[in-house]
Amino acid sequence: MSALSKNLRSDFTKLARDAAALLVKPLGALLLAVFATAPQLAQAQAPAVAATRDTVLIVGDSLSAEYGLKRGTGWVPLLEKQLAADKKSARVVNASISGDTTSGGRSRLPGLLTRHKPTVVVIELGGNDALRGLPLDMTEANLLSMTQAAKKAGAKVLLLGMQVPPNYGGAYGSTFSGLFTKVAKAEKVALVPFFLKGVADVDDAVGNFQADRIHPNEQAQAKMLANVWPELKKLIK
Questions:
Q1: From 54, 62, 100, 177, active-site residue
Q2: Minimal CB count within 10 Å: which of 124, 134, 143, 199?
Q3: Given this model, what pLDDT does residue 31 score?
Q4: Does 98 participate in catalysis according to the annotation?
């Protein structure tokens, strides 16, 4: 091979090396940039993950299931609007069924806890137990069991207390309303002493109820939420 050919080959090899180096440098810089921004991307995504960290599960009866009301006007939908207004990221799962008792809620709760993994459980049951004259010790045992199950699943609990009309008798009414306080104290959970305060215990109460005089009407729903919200918001991050 001539000296000229050797020189040309040497020059060509050098040019090839330089070209490869130029290609590698941008690629290296790109990889460094990706790795450098990865932590920032992770931090940017963190709020989105945190935004769904709270789930409020409501296990109730017709008072929470919008019985006789236009959809979207009950206290639970109003709660969702309240959460949005307060910029709280919790989602609401309304598992309320009209006519349900504490026995029904107790049997349904394990599946609900597994499915929805709530961070807060609101128990609004017991009214139908009283209306049906069910044994009060059974109602208490069911409320206690539900509270313990929710706590064991890692959820905070809010009990919504109920009262019965005076015609049920003073002793029965006092014992019934006391069940909620008793369970709340025993399990150290939050309590709204009377869910229908300002709705059923006022002089013009009839104006707060539907024609059946059992279920609150649309105008009473905001008051029901007002009874729940002060205690519930303490349990939501």
A1: 62
A2: 134
A3: 40
A4: no
Place of tokens 């059946």: 212
Contact (Cβ atoms closer than 8 angstroms) between residue 162 and residue 195:
yes
Over residues 26-45, the pLDDT tens digits come to 444 444 444 444 445 445 44
Exactly one of 2, 5, 204, 212 is catalytic; which is it? 212
pLDDT of residue 92: 98
Dihedral angle at the C-alpha atoms of 215, 221, 223, 226, nearest 10 degrees?
120
pLDDT at 159 over 70: yes
84-113 tens-digit pLDDT = 999 998 999 999 999 999 999 999 999 999
- Is 212 catalytic? The answer is yes
Instruction: Please give the C-alpha separations between residue 79 and each of 52, 54, 135, 222, in angstroms, as whole numbers.
Output: 16, 14, 32, 9
pLDDT of residue 85: 96
CB 57 within 8 A of CB 120: yes
Residues near 177 by beta carbon (within 8 Å), at least 6 away in sequence: 161, 162, 163, 164, 193, 194
pTM of the model: 0.79
* Per annotation, catalytic residue among 61, 64, 177, 215: 215
